[in-house]
Design goal:
about 325 residues, alpha+beta, Elongation Factor Tu (Ef-tu), domain 3, Rossmann fold, Ubiquitin-like (UB roll), 3 domains, eight-stranded antiparallel β-sheet, five-stranded parallel β-sheet, 20 strands, globular, binds FE2/S2 (inorganic) cluster, metal-binding, Riboflavin_synthase-like_b-brl, 2Fe-2S
Length: about 325
Amino acid sequence: MAALTRSHRQRGRVVEAEHVADGVRRIVLEVDHPEPASPGTHVDVELPIRGGRQVRSYSVVRSEDGGRRLTLSVQLSPASRGGSEAMHALAVGEELTVTGPVQSFPLSVGAGRYVLVAGGIGVTALVAMASALRRRGADYELVLVGRSRRVMAYVDELRAEHGERVRVHVDDEGTPLSVPDLVGEIASAPNADTTELYMCGPIGLMDAIRSSWTEHALPPTSLRFETFGSSGRFDAEDFVVRLPQHDREVTVPRDASILEALTAAGVETLSDCRKGECGLCLAKIVDVDGTVDHRDVFLSEAQKQRSNSLCLCVSRAVADGGDRASLTLHLT
Ligand code: FES
């Protein structure tokens, strides 16, 4: 994303910055033009990345003082495209350009039951939602999933606020989440048809929940998610994209998306969400040398298996060993 295009850009000043889990930094911004941030909102932040200005989106974890103080939390990702590194480098007192709260993951009113599933740093999209549900007196459950407790932010705080409504699944404690059990429980409950599941986390977790949700024929509109271009199954690495229709070959660095690399090379493509959700950037895969790492939530699991197309904004390729991977694509 090249620049903030929304009209309500404003100045945000870093007033607090601290580590809240291994590799996770909590950053509190004070903004010039406060407005209420409803649950599920994020802000777009303009950051110095690779010598230019790029935009990244971060969930509003907490909004205080009428929206003047916004808390974000960012995990330093080894597969970072530069955003998390830039956010971790911010010091108290620094200023940056941000939007006001943007709603792309709204919390409905009136569902019979709410299940919120957070994988890793995905918890940031669900903290405010859980608080809103508690205040409303709703029937809800918060499921926190992580590899290790030391990298999971907000667990103690959420336990203190929500008590028994929080379930914690930690891989290295031998309590991993069983997606079939979780979705099976929802499907067999009397209020299955009015239960909504909100999720934010790694693409593998979200794909597994989506498949299980479909298998149980639960209402598709009751499954809601936030992605922010989730991490993939493989670490990001450089690869080559060939475009026979343009007679071009473009290298995609590990810290850029195909879409960004093509744009930088002057190749125009369609895009909208840039988070792997809308499918507007879909391109046909003509040939692949390596493995495609589908990171979107637009294609179904079966379409990802067939791998005839991919979302340029988030998906990548990795080598099967040896040389760099290469993808031959046809842009639509
Ligand atoms: S721009 Fe929406 S999926 Fe890529």
